[in-house]
Amino acid sequence: MNRSLWINPAVGISGDMLIGALFDVGASQDFVRESLASLEVDGWQMKIDEVVKQGILSTRAEITCDDTSHHRSWSYIDSLIEDSSLHVEISEGARKTFKLLAEVEANRHGIGLDEVHFHEVGSIDAIIDIVGTWSALKSLQITKVISSNVGVGAGSVKTAHGLLPNPAPATIDILKNCGVRGIDTELETVTPTGAALLVTVTDIWGPLPDGKIIASGFGAGFYEPATHPNVLNVVITESDNSFRSESIVIETTVDDVTPETLGYLIPHLINSGVDDAWIIPVIMKKTRPGHELKVLCSENILEKIVKIIAKETGTLGMRIYPIKKQVFSRSEECITVRDTDIKIKIGPYGVKPEHDDVSLLAKKSGLTLKEATEEVFLEWNRKAEDS
Q: pTM of the predicted model, to two decimals?
């Protein structure tokens, strides 16, 4: 069964609104608190309440901290998360969010990553928001996150750097290439933390996905605007064992692009949101060896991906056409082998361990990759027999 989360930030998003919304659709508070307890961070409290925002019952996650210091370096926060006992998916997700924030800060100030010192997003409550959100997603067993356009305000906003335009420059940088819509308000509807979480948890940008609605919830913000309820809506949908969807194929053939460029391009495209990308060796019309680049992506990021391909390869044209694809349901479970967490991907016709996790097991235990894989399947089969 495919389990998708749709985020609808039509009137904005912040870290506390997102985690509140995830609690509202059933994320385990106990699991999130246990995850957060593994961080070496003391003196914080998380209070979860139901509130009504202009007639909409919502969940508010209020995080308070004894330590009000905001100035923490990116390297400190990255090490704090990496050295914790968080599940690998939560740790990697939280580090990805903070790295995006650090990259934006570094680019905006013209400094290196190691020189970045966060202001507002370096506070304890921001760390709790980010790690807590990734923990909540893990507890909900979400397989894909879809987000729609983000509602942003206008005017000005007060920051550690003084009075700045609204949205804040960091927020604008984070939301680059994302769909936005203007709201007639001078409130800061989108915070840098909320924007970074939205961008890093989202797999696809688009409307509510096909399937059966399982849960719908709202996370409450703290502002009380007169123009709209200050809430973030999320919806969980499930689809059957397989479903059909439409994607876009982009392809181009090149004979003058270096292997180094092609090797860089594939992960660059994956990190930019495409579903898949691959290269096929071909013989071109002048009998020159060349390569055919194929990319599979959703229509809402088509323009962005076309620009990336054109800039990186110098190609003078591409073939673009829609296709239908069938996607089988999948779920994930986690087992532990020799103190290493291994993610198991479960489909209707078999299971497969996450390669990176098995590689880590092999490296830590001194096993060959084949031996590590065999141990993983032995543990999985033992667990299946016990259940």
A: 0.65
